[in-house]
Amino acid sequence: GENVEQHPSTLSVQEGDSAVIKCTYSDSASNYFPWYKQELGKRPQLIIDIRSNVGEKKDQRIAVTLNKTAKHFSLHITETQPEDSAVYFCAAPRGGTSYGKLTFGQGTILTVHP
Amino acid sequence: GAGVSQSPSNKVTEKGKDVELRCDPISGHTALYWYRQSLGQGLEFLIYFQGNSAPDKSGLPSDRFSAERTGGSVSTLTIQRTQQEDSAVYLCASSLGLAGGLNEQFFGPGTRLTVL
């Protein structure tokens, strides 16, 4: 099955700085890589995803890059704001299936200091 | 439309008791997932339902855990003879489950289970 490793486990930045979270996966057949954000006491919500036919995707201040050869993908947040403070989870398809079963990383606690 | 709902929001039980947790997915979503999230931890996959197919139970931690999905909609996760290590937030999610589709999972608010 898929194994997803996420680093760092905690990340502290100053408002306005950039933040980068990295994940590696094990199954070369994996073709979909979503990122979820979970604010304190709330449910996880999808913020961005990337499919294996592209190397980068951007949505305003967030971007995701994918290196299929190295089997890793990263979340980039620019011009961070206090409301970006949350736990971020990466994920990859579980067992390489296509119905959306996911294996999640352990999460990164991002703290943005005003 | 309404999102994924779960009940109860909180459940406190005594060790050894059985508990049932309920999930109402988004209407029309054929895929339903259960996850467990322990304090400060990631999302641990438990079980997956897709349409009328046999569920994927590969994530269930022991035979004390079981789940059903009736009529392709509502799901119930049952934990028998609860142990203190079962204390966690149990999250349900649903998605369109389209073949070949890589579908966004919509999460419910979770049930916080505390076993005393």
Can you tag this structure with a few keywords?
heterodimer; A: 114 residues; mainly beta; 6-stranded mixed beta sheet; 11 strands; globular; B: 116 residues; 10 strands
Write up what this structure looks like:
The complex is a heterodimer of chains A (114) and B (116). The radius of gyration of chain A is 13 Å and the shape is globular. Chain A has 114 residues and is mainly beta. In chain A, strands 2, 4, 5, 9, 10 and 11 form a 6-stranded mixed sheet that branches. Chain A has a 5-stranded antiparallel sheet with strand order 1-3-8-7-6, with no helix packed on it. The relative contact order of chain A is 0.34. The model of chain A has no long low-confidence stretch (mean pLDDT 91). In chain A, 0% of the residues lie in helices and 55% in strands. Chain A has no helices and 11 strands. Chain A has strands spanning 4-7, 10-14, 19-25, 32-38, 45-51, 56-59, 62-67, 72-77, 86-93, 102-104, 108-113. By secondary structure, chain B is mainly β. Helix content of chain B is 0%, strand content 45%. Chain B has strands at residues 5-7, 10-13, 19-24, 31-37, 44-50, 65-69, 75-79, 88-95, 106-107, 111-115. In chain B, strands 2, 4, 5, 8, 9 and 10 form a 6-stranded mixed sheet that branches. In chain B, strand 6 and strand 7 (75-79) form a beta hairpin. Chain B starts with a strand and ends with a strand. The A-B interface holds A 1, 6, 31-32, 34, 42-46, 49, 51, 89, 93-94, 98-107 and B 31, 33, 35, 41-43, 45, 48, 50, 56, 58, 91, 95, 97-105, 107-110.
Briefly summarize what is shown.
The complex is a heterodimer of chains A (114) and B (116). Chain A is 0% helix and 55% strand. Chain A has strands spanning 4-7, 10-14, 19-25, 32-38, 45-51, 56-59, 62-67, 72-77, 86-93, 102-104, 108-113.
